[in-house]
Amino acid sequence: MYVQTLDQLFSLAVLLTCCGLAVWRGRWVERVAAAAMAAAWFASPLVQDDSQTLGAQGGVLMVDVLLLLVLLYLALTSDRWWTMAAAAFQGVAALVHLAAAIDKQIIPRAYYVAGSLLSYLVMGALLVGAWNAGRREKPRPDGLA
Question: pLDDT tens digits, residue range 46-63?
Answer without folding.
Answer: 988 777 766 677 788 899
